[in-house]
Amino acid sequence: MSNKKFNQGIGRQMPWELPATEVTPEAVFRDRRNIVKALGLGAIGASIPGHVQAGLFDLFGEKRESEAFVTSNLNYRSNPNFQLPGSLTPLDKVIRHNNFYEFGTGKQDPFENSQGLKVNPWMLKVEGEVERPLTLDYDDLLKLLPLEERHYRLRCVEAWSMVIPWIGFPLAALLAKAGVKSSATHVAFETLFDPEQMPGQRNRLMGGGIHYPYVEGLRLDEAMNELSFLSVGLYGKTLPPQNGAPVRLVVPWKYGFKSIKSIVKIRLLDKQPPTSWNQLAPHEYGFYANVNPKVDHPRWSQATERRIAEGGIFSAKRIPTQMFNGYGEQVAHLYRDLDLRKYY
Ligand SMILES: Nc1nc2c(c(=O)[nH]1)N[C@H]1C(S)=C(S)[C@@H](COP(=O)(O)O)O[C@H]1N2
Ligand SMILES: [Mo]
């Protein structure tokens, strides 16, 4: 399968650049909407009972949604300040087209390889320059803070994007519980390191050459911004493993690689922490990684993006990329004194 090639994924070849002959089987055969259309069954979700959908998956060798989406329903309220015009990316795209290199570099690898990830028990530590270090277990993640739903655009540095209904809480609310000391200037995040569960951490090729654990970071004022969000769910349910269960960061004005998954540690620091993609290719991926249509990636343009909706990446519409991914009103002031060409 073309997407199993090593030289693909973030910072490498882009899937839609493959010749049509190579993409046809995946785009058509594996796309359940096309299958459903071909069978004349109409719009999925609206008119097909669940057991018929499950039967179709069996028929075409797909895993059932119930397996892929391990989950309980969450209690949350929808935040009216974070609704978006236009439609959400369908659930089957959100959970089948992923970057999570701990489970392989192909877009379907996380879906295929992460279903056994143990997310309960879990331990998330908040430590470093804080008044009250915290240790949150799985239940704390879902219950410590009131949950809200926010629709955010997610713009990957590879120039595709989605609109996802996340459920979670503001990062600032968690940091307030811990009490940030005045000495803190930055926040560092770390993903689970568990090579037994994460094949990409055992095999350098499969893990895309990243030095694990995956680490990310924000400046403190970025972390405290109202947009910075810790997500524990999407589409009404707890996160599937491939989307970063049980808790992941979402910073929608930055390229997707900043939105680190399956977090075990949040550490307040008095200096800028190292970050995984910056370590791997510093001239291609900066610490800031703000979405910016005027600063191209050294190997491709960032002026436009493919918005993934119905039908998958190969039919995705190309739309202009917005400065700060359209969140300038909330975040532009953070960068007033920064040369965004130099601090990309
Ligand atoms: N730990 C970890 N976090 C990660 C990644 C990863 O490979 N490992 N990929 C990042 C990238 S490049 C993107 S675009 C988003 C994708 O999130 P999604 O799969 O939920 O859409 O996750 C980010 N978080
Ligand atoms: Mo990404």
UniProtKB/TrEMBL annotation:
The cofactor binding remark recorded in the entry reads: Binds 1 Mo-molybdopterin (Mo-MPT) cofactor per subunit.
Write the Enzyme Commission number(s) for this entry: 1.8.5.-
> Which residues belong to any copy of the Oxidoreductase molybdopterin-binding domain?
119-277
Which positions bind Mo-molybdopterin? N98, Y101, E102, C156, T191, N243, R248, S259, I260, K261
Which co-factors does it depend on? Answer: Mo-molybdopterin
User: One Pfam family this chain carries?
Assistant: Oxidored_molyb
Which leading EC class covers this enzyme?
Answer: oxidoreductase
Q: Which domain of life is it from?
A: Bacteria
User: What GO MF terms are annotated?
Assistant: metal ion binding; molybdopterin cofactor binding; oxidoreductase activity, acting on a sulfur group of donors, quinone or similar compound as acceptor
Record's catalysed reaction(s): L-methionyl-[protein] + a quinone + H2O = L-methionyl-(S)-S-oxide-[protein] + a quinol; L-methionyl-[protein] + a quinone + H2O = L-methionyl-(R)-S-oxide-[protein] + a quinol
Alphabetical list of SUPFAM superfamilies matching this protein: Oxidoreductase molybdopterin-binding domain
Per UniProt, which keywords does this protein have? Metal-binding, Molybdenum, Oxidoreductase, Signal
Q: Name one GO biological process term.
A: protein repair
What the protein does?
A: Part of the MsrPQ system that repairs oxidized periplasmic proteins containing methionine sulfoxide residues (Met-O), using respiratory chain electrons. Thus protects these proteins from oxidative-stress damage caused by reactive species of oxygen and chlorine generated by the host defense mechanisms. MsrPQ is essential for the maintenance of envelope integrity under bleach stress, rescuing a wide series of structurally unrelated periplasmic proteins from methionine oxidation.
Family the UniProt entry places it in: Belongs to the MsrP family.
Self-association and partners: Heterodimer of a catalytic subunit (MsrP) and a heme-binding subunit (MsrQ).
**HAMAP family, alphabetized:** MsrP
What's the protein called, per UniProt? Answer: Protein-methionine-sulfoxide reductase catalytic subunit MsrP
Organism of this sequence: Shewanella algae
